[in-house]
Write a structure and sequence with these properties.
Blueprint lengths: L5 H10 L13 H6 L5 H8 L3 H6 L4 E5 L8 H7 L2 H9 L2 E2 L5 H5 L6 E4 L14 E7 L4 E5 L8 E11 L3 E6 L8 H4 L11 H7 L4 H10 L1 H8 L5 E6 L1 H5 L6 H4 L2 H9 L2 E2 L5 H5 L5 E3 L1 H6 L5 E7 L2 E5 L4 E11 L2 E6 L11 H10 L38 H23 L1
Parallel strand pairs: 1-7, 8-14
Antiparallel strand pairs: 1-2, 3-4, 4-5, 5-6, 6-7, 8-9, 10-11, 11-12, 12-13, 13-14
Helix pairs in contact: 6-18, 9-10
Bound molecules: 2-acetamido-2-deoxy-beta-D-glucopyranose (7 copies).
The site of one 2-acetamido-2-deoxy-beta-D-glucopyranose has 4 residues, from strand 5.
Subcellular location: Cell membrane
GO biological process, one term: mucilage biosynthetic process involved in seed coat development
Membrane topology: Lipid-anchor; GPI-anchor
């Protein structure tokens, strides 16, 4: 399917009288897209976000729309992904510049970078909110991909859908565009499902306590099930970390259901290689416990301290000491301390336990209201309204979600590529 096919179409359009659309600032993108039935799934995704109102005040735009026939995973996208992350991916399909078909044919073979609406959210790292558009000089095939080096995903321009010079162009493209996927998609190995986590931990020697706790609690089956999805990242405390817990410590005396929440607190619901964790801009990460207990609770603060990766729970500061497994979709890292969530443990009583030796179990656990969903921080599984919140407010959570989304998308894309 070469780009030249769209030219006759463009000429026809150009010969037609100007489409009766009022002022440039009054473009209703939803209405324009809705006129094209073959784009209904993409249009539904886009109009489910704040993007139409973002765009209402802009005049020079190009939209890369994915036709229904190229968007078979749309149902999966909307059911698996929080609305705010989906919105950022859709924003990546909107270029803040008017490009006519002729403009595309002038793009140099070496490519040009174009800023997308996603870049304006402040959630894109470096220039990964841009797309690199290249043209094959031999067949004029125009491709769009992330400027991230080695990004394996790209979309091809299929044709012109509609153009309103010099305000809005809509082109159809062969695939969803995934922003900055390089860190996550660099691995070309197919996801290895069926890794036995218990066995991997026992083989790691220093993780017998956590291995038996995971097996006993049954959560390992849940984790194992996640291998098939976006993958998982586990932080496993060393045997020493468990032996250093205060002997009167309340972790051992927690009821089984809370113990299993603490174990889930050690797991991120996506596969993150070490380099990706190290380069995280926004440290607060939701965990599997967040999913169980409610948005904003049970987050881990992952950052670099003294040049190595550290995990701050607000109660303990643990460091990542080793990589046990890094096999997409499973990453397992050894950590120096048991990650005690502040929702169950009180810093003051932990400190006083360690200094005075008083029984930590005497410290009251916070009531469940403190862990109820929707309380403090925004983001994870958040309301659609977060989509429109300005950068900075919910940046951390949104960034996390975007990364999760990218992983999800990559898995879906991988599925179709294979
Ligand atoms: C397109 O934008 C120009 C300004 O660049 C404006 O004068 C014109 O009315 C707009 N056309 C349409 C159809 O909106
Ligand atoms: C844009 O068009 C859609 C569908 O035609 C309509 O539902 C929506 O109200 C319009 N929005 C504005 C701001 O006019
Ligand atoms: C765009 O992609 C082309 C082809 O992969 C590459 O040669 C070029 O360096 C890229 N440009 C940028 C700015 O990333
Ligand atoms: C786009 O991806 C396809 C398959 O994934 C690949 O064959 C093709 O070379 C890529 N094109 C560019 C310009 O990277
Ligand atoms: C995983 O490995 C452990 C220890 O070797 C074993 O007991 C368990 O049955 C294995 N689980 C599965 C599902 O193979
Ligand atoms: C995360 O932890 C680092 C290092 O302990 C700390 O400097 C930073 O303030 C923490 N951030 C949040 C949001 O808690
Ligand atoms: C970081 O280094 C400083 C100075 O060497 C030290 O006091 C501090 O404990 C270190 N922090 C961690 C988390 O290792």
């Amino acid at each position: 399917m070469t780009f030249s096919r769209i030219l006759p179409c463009f000429l026809l359009l150009a010969l037609q009288p100007a489409t009766p659309i009022a002022a440039a600032s009054l473009f209703n993108v939803t209405a324009v897209l809705s006129a094209h039935t073959g784009l209904s799934a993409f249009t539904a995704l886009l109009s489910g976000t704040a993007i139409p109102s973002d765009l209402a005040s802009r005049t020079s735009l190009t939209i890369f729309a994915v036709p229904d026939s190229f968007l078979p995973a749309s149902a999966d996208l909307t059911s698996h992904l929080p609305p705010s992350s989906l919105a950022d991916v859709i924003r990546y399909h909107v270029i803040l510049e008017y490009l006519s078909p002729a403009d595309l044919l002038k793009i140099p073979p070496s490519g040009s970078l174009f800023t997308t609406l996603f870049q304006t959210t402040g959630r894109a790292t470096s220039d990964f909110g841009s797309v690199n558009i290249t043209r094959n000089p031999s067949d004029n095939l125009v491709s769009i991909h992330s400027p991230a080096p080695f990004s394996p995903y790209n979309a091809t321009v299929l044709g012109l859908v509609e153009t309103f010079p010099y305000n809005l162009s809509i082109f159809s493209v062969s695939s969803i565009l995934v922003p900055y996927g390089s860190d996550l998609t660099a691995s070309e190995t197919a996801p290895s499902s069926g890794l036995n986590i218990t066995k991997a931990l026992i083989d790691g020697h220093n993780f017998n306590v956590v291995a038996s706790m995971l097996a006993a609690s049954g959560v390992v089956e849940e984790f194992q099930a996640d291998e098939g999805g976006a993958g998982i990242t586990l932080f496993v405390p060393t045997d020493t970390a468990f032996s250093e817990l205060p002997s009167s410590g309340s972790f051992q005396s927690l009821p089984a259901d809370k113990k299993s929440v603490v174990l889930k607190y050690h797991v991120l619901h996506s596969y993150y290689p070490l380099g990706f964790l190290e380069s995280m801009v926004n440290p607060l990460q939701p965990t599997l416990a967040t999913e169980a207990m409610g948005a904003g609770s049970f987050t881990l603060n992952i950052s670099r301290v003294n040049g190595s990766l550290a995990i701050d729970t607000g109660i303990v500061l643990a460091s990542v000491t080793q990589t046990v497994i890094d096999e997409n979709p499973v990453a397992i890292f050894g950590v120096s301390k048991v990650l005690l969530p502040r929702e169950f443990f009180n810093k003051h009583s932990t400190v006083s336990t360690m200094s005075s030796g008083s029984a930590m179990s005497s410290s009251p656990l916070p009531d469940t209201a403190a862990m109820s969903p929707g309380s403090s921080s925004p983001g994870y599984g958040g309301e659609p309204s977060h989509v429109s919140s300005p950068p900075g407010e919910s940046t951390g959570a949104a960034d996390i979600i975007v990364r999760k989304l990218i992983l999800g998308l990559c898995c879906i894309l991988m599925h179709f590529v294979v």
